[in-house]
Write a structure and sequence with these properties.
By secondary structure, the protein is mostly helical. The chain has one domain. Helices cover 66% and strands 0% of the residues. The protein has 7 helices and no strands. Helix 3 crosses helix 5, helix 4 packs antiparallel against helix 5 and helix 6 packs across helix 7. It is globular.
Amino acid sequence: MKSVNEEDVRNVNMNDYAKDYSEESLWDKVRENVSSIGLTVIYKAFQLYYVAQSDSCPMKVKAGIIGALGYLISPLDLVPDFIPVVGYSDDALAIAFALTAAQMYITDEVKQKAKDRIREIFGDKFVAKLEEEEDS
């Protein structure tokens, strides 16, 4: 495995990962890795997905979202996903950067769509857990 140095990190272009993005690959990735990725990161990723569908979201923000979601889906990472505890930390960071740009476009409707998708994939129990986390 190639080690990653500081220059490698600075030279990462999130948009390079947009080619890996597809709706089905996003659903598959989270379905297969929910315990590793974490419910909160998945919820935020789904919010981004639905923001990107919005006509009110500018193309620049959509590009950042697609790059972040593509990075989450991509098997190529700065920190390999299979490493316990830290494997999805770089993916979570990509999602956090995209959330910063998209924050003003995350409406109650977007949040509800994200929760509804979590319910479809994982069931009511996961939505209840997510809502418990939001309330605390």
